[in-house]
Every structure is written in structure tokens, then in C-alpha cells.
Amino acid sequence: MIALHINIDHVATVRQARQISEPDPVTAAGLVELAGADGITIHLREDRRHIIDRDVRILRETIQTRMNLEMAATAEMFAIALDIRPDIVTLVPEKREEVTTEGGLDIAGAAEIMHKGIAQLRGAGIRVSLFIDPDAEQIKASQKAGAEDVELHTGCYANAENSEELDREYQRLVSAAELAHQEKLQVNAGHGLNYINTQRICGLPHLRELNIGHSIVSRAIFVGISQAVQEMREIIIRNS
Ligand code: PXP
């Protein structure tokens, strides 16, 4: 079955709005795991706008499933990852002024620091996933860069404004998933997925993991975090 990794960044966003200690993403991670998540995803951003270093340290000790650390390919972040040793590192592009991660990584044009960092992470036994647009050039470059996984950016699919655009974006994801599998990369996907558009994404060929954050944390405000996780898991079970 497709694994569900839940991104709990926005629990920390609410905490940081007041700069106090609640709600604690560590508590959220425990509840999300009890509700059936297969992994916990967190993004330590350069500006520490939601997840902070303290969360990363404590979560490394408390997560019982798998810890997926999203981060930019910078010297600072590679050093943190090599110290903390998450199960998976997902490299993402990062801009200070963006509201959320905007596009996929440019692996094809990646700088030396990225290749060196990937080799160091893999040498330390950390699985490396690259968050990329569903694009053939980026997939081939990801394979060459030494990644084990790619996470296909589903943002354009999620933001499609009409059914033709939706079908076109879905087909791009299908082709990208086929190619990534052919290149021996594990196929993951995420960004902008919710209780409506995830159903079709579950039909992507070779899909192994989903990373979903905002929609689950949003729903949790109204129905509670356990129910929000279980409802998403049911969508995945029904469509896997
Ligand atoms: N995957 C990656 C690489 C991301 O950067 C994000 C957002 O932090 C997500 C998945 C989750 O996206 P969303 O919050 O829209 O579900």
C-alpha cells in the first residue's frame, strides 16, 4: 500500500505565531503516528519560521515510524542532517520570500554542494529523496546525482483550474512516474494534496509514498488530528 507521511510543519506555524510552546509538533507527531501515519515529515527552513532546531532534536528521539527531514541543499543543513541522522532527507528548493515550496529542485543544473551533500548523506546511511517537477531531464539528473527516491511535485496538478489542465498535469505525473521507475528511483509525490485530489494521485504508477501536510493539519482544527489522519488513510486504502 502507498505509505502516508504527514508533514506537521503547520502545527509549528501556529506555535510560532505566538512564540510560545504550544501546540507542540512533538505531541502532534505522536498522535499522528498513533492514528496510522507511516512517517513524519518536517521542513527545517533557513528562517526557522515553523519547525525549529529543538523540534528536530526531540523528534529524532521520539518518532517511532520514519523521520523525513526536508531541507535546502546548504552547508548548514547538510551538517544538521549528518548530526541528527533522519531516516530520509528530502532536498527541496527554498526561497526566503516564498509562502511555501514553489517549484521542484533544479538537479540538472545543480551545484557541486548538492552532489557532495547527497554523497555524504548516503555515506551516513541516510536515504536521499529529491523534490522535483515531473520532468524527464530532472528525473535523469536525479538518478545521476545518486538519489534513491524522487518526490514528484504535485502542485501544478493540485492547482489546475479546469479539467483539461488537470488531465494534462496528471498525465505529466504518470509519464514522470514511469520514467523514474525505469531509472530505478522510488516514486513519491506531494504538495497541495487534499481530501479531494489525492484519490486520483493514488492511481499513479509505481507510487510508494505521499507527503501531505497543510490539508491534514487544516482538517485537524475541525475534526481532531486522529480523525483527520484516519480519513486520509481511508482515501489511500480505498484507492491503492
Ligand atoms: N512535499 C514537499 C517537498 C514539501 O515541501 C511540502 C510542503 O512543505 C509538502 C510535500 C507538503 O505539501 P502540503 O503542505 O501542501 O501538503
TrEMBL record:
Gene Ontology annotations of biological process type: pyridoxine biosynthetic process
Keyword match Cytoplasm: yes
Pfam families linked to this entry: PdxJ (PF03740)
Catalytic activity line of the entry: 3-amino-2-oxopropyl phosphate + 1-deoxy-D-xylulose 5-phosphate = pyridoxine 5'-phosphate + phosphate + 2 H2O + H(+)
Pathway: Cofactor biosynthesis; pyridoxine 5'-phosphate biosynthesis; pyridoxine 5'-phosphate from D-erythrose 4-phosphate: step 5/5
Keyword Cytoplasm: yes
GO cellular component, one term: cytosol
One Gene Ontology term of the molecular function aspect: pyridoxine 5'-phosphate synthase activity
Site annotation Transition state stabilizer: residues: 151
Source taxon at top rank: Bacteria
Cited CDD domains: PNPsynthase
Subcellular location: Cytoplasm
Active site residues according to the UniProt entry: 43 (proton acceptor), 70 (proton acceptor), 191 (proton donor)
Alphabetical UniProt keywords: Cytoplasm, Pyridoxine biosynthesis, Transferase
InterPro entries, A to Z: Aldolase_TIM (IPR013785), PyrdxlP_synth_PdxJ (IPR004569), Pyridoxine-5'_phos_synth (IPR036130)
Protein residues bound to 1-deoxy-D-xylulose 5-phosphate: 9-10, 45, 50, 100
E.C. code: 2.6.99.2
Class of this enzyme: transferase
Main location: cytoplasm
Protein family per UniProt: Belongs to the PNP synthase family.
Protein name as catalogued: Pyridoxine 5'-phosphate synthase
Encoding gene, per UniProt annotation: pdxJ
